[in-house]
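To the wet lab folks,

You asked to see what we're planning to order before we commit. Fair enough. Below is the target structure as tokens, and below that is the sequence we designed to fit it. If anything looks off to you, flag it before the synthesis order goes out.
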């Protein structure tokens, strides 16, 4: 996945988190669990993408240092 694709995916996740937040304020308690699980999945994916971007940046810095 390219850097640009990762940023696009991160934006989609943030948009979805915003949607979940709005829904969470309006739903019944039974739906709270579903939305909370969805939010947790989104946050984990966002964290994974952030870590991947960090790794990519370190790899580029290492390659430049070796050159």
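Sequence we intend to order:
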């Amino acid at each position: 996945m390219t850097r640009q694709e990762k940023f696009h995916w991160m934006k989609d996740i943030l948009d979805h988190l915003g949607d979940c937040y709005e829904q969470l304020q309006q739903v019944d308690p039974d739906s709270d669990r579903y939305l909370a699980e969805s939010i947790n999945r989104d946050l984990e994916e966002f964290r994974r993408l952030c870590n991947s971007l960090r790794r990519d940046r370190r790899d580029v810095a290492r390659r430049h240092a070796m050159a």
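Structural context that might help your review: Residues 3-66 form one domain. The chain has one domain: 3-66.

Thanks,
Computational group
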